[in-house]
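RETRY 2/3 - previous attempt timed out on the joint model. Re-submitting the same 253-residue input unchanged.
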Amino acid sequence: MILYFSGTGNSLYAAKKLAEMTGDTAVPMTAIRGQCRRIQDRIIGFVFPVYFGELPDPVRDFIAQVQFCKSTYFYGIATCGSSPGRALRTMDHILRRQHCTLSYGAVLPMIANSTIASRRHIHYDVNRLDHADEVISEAASKIRGQIEDKAALRSSFSAALMNIGMIRRAGERWLTPSVDADRCMACGLCARICPVSNIICTAKGAVIGSHCSYCLACVHWCPYQAVTVHGKQVLAEDQYHHPDVTAEDMTRR
Ligand SMILES: Cc1cc2nc3c(=O)[nH]c(=O)nc-3n(C[C@H](O)[C@H](O)[C@H](O)COP(=O)(O)O)c2cc1C
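RETRY 2/3 succeeded.
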């Protein structure tokens, strides 16, 4: 089973591609969160984005709350802009609390969806995605052979720095979405797409709740650019989602 978490489709794309190449099934973590206390399989993979050099909170909580089996071969694929920080190492630590271990980890640099908070007229270099299939194919061959390779689980000093409470909180403030009531058409897409169900859509428009995971799905997918990030209005040309992933793919749970 391949369990994924995704805001803008990079991790969803990687999970689906990996499923094709390994003959496995990709399932969004959010679809089974709270419903599954125990997951048993021969091979379990986690595909997720790196946030602030770490695991996204929903991924961390999911792994900590589900019971796994010691004999499973676990692997993790961290999609990111450039630097995976210590996300894979943290994943291994959490699994170890259950006497399990991450046998293999891979880093998959794609497009940094967080750039939207700091820049305008970004022109994402989507050519970078061409390399992704190669990395996924290499990962698939290791996974099929149940190879142990922990080289990507190493952390760096800069990754540790990024997660110091104050720096992390500043990052979260910088990436906090809010709704511009004048632009919101109450179409409800953000509510359907939010992977942690933190948005409701009323007749007057979308309302963002208090347990945001900072995935930026609402910012990037809104057809009316009505979701701002730290109060800054985003441009349609700066919205990003993986080119092979549709809003329907994201909302299918
Ligand atoms: C809150 C947040 C923090 C991020 N932190 C990092 C980071 O520390 N290092 C990095 O290389 N990319 C970082 N990114 C970029 C994402 O990891 C990257 O775009 C990822 O592939 C998005 O996956 P998704 O499309 O499945 O949501 C961050 C993105 C967000 C939204």
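The mean pLDDT is 95. Closing ticket.
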